[in-house]
Here is the input.
Amino acid sequence: MILFNGSVFALVLWVALAVQIFALIDAALRPAGAYVAAGKLTKQAWVTILAVALVVVQFSGWFGPLGLAAIVATIVYFVDVRPALRRLVR
Here is the structure.
């Protein structure tokens, strides 16, 4: 049972890594003007936030205050910023 729990935890970490990498790449590929037009932080700010979040989770894990803040930042990008940018670009 311990091996199963360890492998599930490792799978969750790999999925979190993939989601964060996707968010970072997606933010980097969006046009800079769309961020301003959507009333969000600038493209540079979001790319920096997501890059720092990725580094934090990889080096300190997603438990604790820094890891939790990094996960929240990624979630905010997906539920608030990305939909606003997608509406503008279409």
Q: What stands out?
A: The chain has one domain: 2-89. Residues 2-89 form one domain.
